[in-house]
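Re: How this chain folds, sequence and tokenised backbone to follow
Notation: Tokens come from a learned vocabulary of local backbone shapes, not from coordinates.
Start of record: The labelled sequence and token lines come straight after this line.
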Amino acid sequence: MVKVNWTLQSIQNIEHIADFIALDSQRYAEVQVQRFFDAVKILEIQPKSVELFLN
């Protein structure tokens, strides 16, 4: 298992992405933010799964 360290910049980027999506849909903005965090959880548990995202 690995630990992903979130930088302030990365959190701010996610917030900006969410703000942009929320201009059309608050719900989809929340869904996308959750997807970011879910993907990182998977990578923390199974670091080799990154190969699936790259192919």
